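dumping this here before i forget
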Amino acid sequence: MTGMLKHYTVLKPKARILPDEEAAVKGPEPIGNLVGQFLQGHCRDFERSSEVLDVWEQLLPADLRTCCRPGRMERETLVIEAPAGPYLYRVKMLSEQILERLNELCPRSRIRKIRICPHSLSENETAKP
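structure:
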């Protein structure tokens, strides 16, 4: 092993991030400014979600509306929550039609996939076959 050179990587310590002196002089940021910045950054997500909620009643047959609900939106996927069993199976069978109808009614939502997750029924939800 006398003819081989060994290479070592020298790690430099990470630089400390010091608080901005100007911000320290100004004091804490008002909560209204922080909320405004958050809303501006998430405005498009809120719009997409509200569009889907606005047309939700038109997407499912009447008997499924009482026990199924929109869950969340994950990028280009809408998660629909349905009770386990025949309701979940039925929503899965209708998922392509639901997706087509959703894209007709809300083309800006950019939903490309529907995922169905099981949930248990609460007291105010009814499951009548």
